[in-house]
Amino acid sequence: MSKVNDLATKKLAEDLANENWKIICAFLPAGWMEQARQSGALQRARGIPDAEKLLRLLLIHVVNGCSLTETAVRATQLGLNISAVAVFKRLQAAEEWLRWLAVQQLGTKRLGLQSHGRPLRAVDATSVSEPGSTGTDWKVHYSISLSDLRCDFFELTAIEGGGETLRRVPVHRGDIMMGDRIYANPVAVSHVVDAKGDILVRLNRQTLPLYDAAEKRIDPLRLFGRIKAGQVNEWVTRVRDRKGAWILGRLIAVKRSAAATRQVRKKLLRKASKCNDPRCFTSMFYR
Question: Could you say which of 106, 139, 172 is where a domain stops?
Fold first, then answer.
């Protein structure tokens, strides 16, 4: 009886997985299977018969975060007999295909920030843990061109000395660099401006002090208290660079509604509750 129940449970899981896959396929762009061969992702069918099986295999690794070995093991559920090395080679060959899929999904949506032909680059970093590790072992620092979603820079560092900083990223004249609040500091601003670029970051009041024309420190919270929900305001500000000179900039703010603010606070509380470091609870009040 237990064997019958196990078979029934496995059949139910397979049916559910297939049904979910049909839903995913409904969102894929036209011609995605043909593009797999044209881009070189599916040059030969040895081990993987078609583009559908190839994409499902790659998503196990890319989306689920499974290791190459675990991906190869899970591939057997798709009827594939493939090694971890073969998964890695398939992933390398599929780079252009996956990028094409991402660009097609972006479609004709216009960027919220008009770059007027200038390179618009998003900068971030992600943590990597080795098998069996209980923490972060490596950091991958990277930047992505938002015009074609192509990674134009990356660097792998050990966790020691692997802090996130814009100084790692080469900046060229005319670049518009976008980053989260971790990049909001005078050093990052100076690095980009010295290279004749512009920088757009989320404000961190502790690490990026702002000043007015009279060289007086600005209190953003006092400014924000004067605007209404949904209203966008901006103020001319200054940042002092590494040499003591002033860099002119703008502070832009839009006030959330009360409902949106409650949702953000709930999200921050959930995130902080999963963190064992008491600083998590303190830092959320500065966001």
Answer: 106
Percent of the chain scored above 70 by pLDDT? 84
Same domain, yes or no, for 43 and 69? Answer: yes
- 112 versus 133: the higher-pLDDT residue is 133
Residue 76 identity (one-letter amino acid)? T
DSSP at 191? H
Per-residue pLDDT tens digits for 86-110: 999 999 999 999 989 988 887 655 5
Residue 207 lies in a domain: no
Cα end-to-end distance, the chain, whole Å: 56
Q: Hey, which residues does 156 pair with through a beta bridge?
A: 140
Q: Is residue 261 part of a domain?
A: no
Question: 70: domain range?
Answer: 11-106
- The residue from 153, 182, 198 where one domain ends is 198
Say what the pTM is. 0.71
Say whether 59 sits in a helix, a strand or coil.
helix
**Which residues are CB-neighbours of 84 under 8 A, at least 6 positions away?**
67, 68, 69, 71, 72
Element housing 112 (H / E): none
> 278: which residues sit within 8 A by CB, 6+ positions away?
none
The tally of domains found in the chain comes to: 2
Across the chain, mean pLDDT equals 83
Tracing tokens 């989306």 back to the chain, one arrives at 63
Selection from 54, 47, 171 nearest residue 101 by Cα: 54
Per the structure block, which two tokens stand in for 50?
Answer: 């078609």
